[in-house]
Amino acid sequence: MQITVTVNGTQHTAEVEPRLLLVHLLRDHLGLTGTHWGCDTSNCGTCVVWLDGTPVKSCTVLAVMADGHEVRTVEGLATADGLDPIQQAFSDHHGLQCGFCTPGMLMTGRWLLDHHPDPSEQQIREAISGQICRCTGYENIVRSVRAAAELSQAKGARA
Asked: Where is the 2Fe-2S ferredoxin-type domain (predicted)?
């Protein structure tokens, strides 16, 4: 099947098998390897991307389901001005650890901050509860999302 998907603002047309998963379209066809492929069962959350602004686990979405829609990946977070506050905070507060869960955590954290600019620790923990980090007790990830909220608010105040 031929599909057309807008990924990080760029339109892509591809010929795909109907069974191809969105994660494989992104990684194997478009070369966007920032989206990680972990479990193929939606348990780990490393593959989270946004489909029309809503976080989805791309290992459970068929590429043909994205036809005519917009996808945003971790590569789409940074802007011409530099890193997104969530990326900067993860770097500054050691939320990266091994990095495998990081793309999904970043996409989930950015979505949370876009919808709840000043989230509580409980809201952060609930938002990331669909993702597995095998390196930490999530403390640095939670700390990073909180710091990103503060950084985003400070940038908004300067704008």
From this structure: 1-77
